[in-house]
Amino acid sequence: MAIADPVRQGLARGWRVIDASTLAHDVEQECDVAIVGTGAGGGTAAEILAEAGLSVVLIEEGPLRSSSDFHMREREAYPELYQESAARKTGDKAINILQGRCVGGGTTVNWTSAFRTPAATLARWRSHHGVRGFDEASLAPWFARMEARLGVAPWTVAPNANNAALARAADALRVSHAPISRNVRGCWNLGYCGLGCPTNAKQSMLVTTIPAALDRGATLFTRLRALRFVAARDRIATLECAALAANGVDVAPWTVRVRARAFVAAAGAINTPALLLRSALPDPHALVGKRTFLHPTVVSAATMPERIDPFAGAPQSVYSDQWLDVAPDGPVGYKLEAPPVHPILAAITLLDFGAAHAARMAELPRWHVLIALLRDGFAGASQGGVVRLRDDGAPLLDYPLDDYLWDGVRRAMTSMAELQFAAGAREVVPVHARGFGYRSFAAARDAIARFDLAPRRTPVVSAHVMGGAPFGSDSATSVVGEDGRHHEIANLYVMDGSLFPTSIGANPQLSIFAIVARLADGLARALRRAV
Amino acid sequence: MPSHDPSRRRFLAVGGLSAALLAAGGALAWRRLTGRPSMLSSGADASRIVRALVPSLLAGALPDVAASPTEAAAARDEVVHDALAAMDGLPPHARRELAQLFALLGFAPSRLVLAGFAADWDAVPRADIDTMLAAWRDSRLELKRAAYDALHALVIGAWYGNARAWPRIGYPGPPVVG
Fold first, then answer.
1. What is the pLDDT of residues A43-62, one digit of tens each?
2. Beta A152-154 vs A181-183: how paired, if at all?
3. Which of B9, B98, B156 to mutate to test the interface with A (most CBs of A within 10 A)?
4. Cβ contact, residue pair B91, A362, below 8 Å
5. A209-241 per-position pLDDT tens digit
6. From the candidates B154, B160, B162, B164, which should be mutated to test the interface with A, based on the most A CB atoms within 10 A?
7. A220, A280, B112, B165: least buried by Cβ within 10 Å?
8. pLDDT for residue A530
9. Cβ–Cβ contact A79 with B under 8 A
10. C-alpha angle with apex A397: A395 to A400, nearest 5 degrees?
11. Does ipTM exceed 0.90?
């Protein structure tokens, strides 16, 4: 039986969706609220604002793709659904960044891990970043609301072998671990969340909030790039957008101008700061794009005696915060998870070539892979990266990998190797340089201690971009207020991961859902009062 | 603001070095180094260079030429095709950088500086390409490591995205749904 595709059904019943790459003329559009971006932030805001009876226009740079298009093939999914074909990189090319670029944004391609914002993170925002009113108790109803909306629940199915190995090893070493909650309903346990869910089990923005907003009459533009806000005194008058060409990467000659009562920037924590920079809005303390965080992530691969099939089954169903729950001012903490492993990403992450590379790839079914996500932005030494603009206005993130982070990388590689040997690994390959394997924990530990860790010698990846337009009460240290409203521009709001003054220390989607739900609810009330 | 862009600056620095070395190269070099990225990325240089790199980068992974020559030739053709298609899907700034890299590698004097051989790609022995790749992979120069990463990802990504690659690595391919 064919799987019902709620997006194609919605299009058939008359959703207002305009693929800007098919335009042959300029367009003028008016609405109550224009939202740039359709990911965790924009999608959440769209539903709440549309349900409040406001007219909403959504602007998405990527295409509209849905379950009928999701064939679980990396070579289709990366160019179609990810920023820069999943090869977006920091300025020195040392960190590869996975970010969504499609309707639903990151939620269409993420691995469904859902964590409430850790209490330690909220405490840090309160004590060090002037964020008031975002404690666990006041956020609890917003988490509960979005968890109910998106089916967030602990994964009670047996973990796949890759995650089971993490749980088994953690038990053996008395390391803390727990199941990860996931935003799924009726999940088939296939393991292809990162390539677009083919069964619509993942409760991404693509199949939940965005359809709800479109059913309420919202308008969605796809393949449309938000270029700049045009301000008149302390208000945005117009948002100027460029239609993309049919290839989805070059620009077509057509402009879309959107006039709205309020504008929401929700393009993700690289593109939102870049949009603010291109708009040359007041930024008296030069904060926009600064303190951009990535959860820099390193990888450890192990060869197990048995088949693991790390490409099959729900990814990331077990985690360990054994090394995350550390003093925030001390050495960097890290979270451990067990990711999905598919051929292209696996092959390009192993930096060797030829026969050695081929031999390693031939072991793929027996790979057990762990990743460590470093919690950046807590200690004073961790200032994150800076978003700036290329000559052509495209964003560029410079993110220095410094000794503070390399120290964390070394400790994380050691922890992962120890766990993998405890899980029964025959060989562990801490992913660095040519990727030599080690046959005992002692050998791996000694080698890791001597690794010449360096940009592009040690592959570092990120799937979580945060910060760059932080919220807070003090306009000297934040770009927007606790209601998401820009300190200098009365009708401009930021509602995405850019808001975060530090990294989250956990997969960020649920933090974005809950915090944006609260901010969008506030904006809806303010706009209705003003009618 | 190219001076604020370290990655681009490095490419341009090598471009400048090559241009200086090769002033005698004249119009051809200049046109290659400044040409439109779309022309360059689909150009003959990129195709020939990628084709020359395939047997080294994917040794042991591609079908064996002696055992199954037809399959091996088809696989190589597909890797080249898919790698070039992947380039065309990149944003303009990334296409521009790759075009600069291929322009440098396509021009004999700058190829000598970067790759260590001046012979044209169709004529270079595989052993020389292996040596060049290993040197780039382990280089102290960030430019060479960046070039290695770019070519490695293009070629190796193209192969492992291809269903022909999967039986050898025990990957069953995506499950059937619906």
1. 999 999 999 999 999 999 99
2. antiparallel
3. B156
4. no
5. 999 999 999 999 999 999 999 999 999 999 999
6. B160
7. A280
8. 82
9. yes
10. 165
11. yes
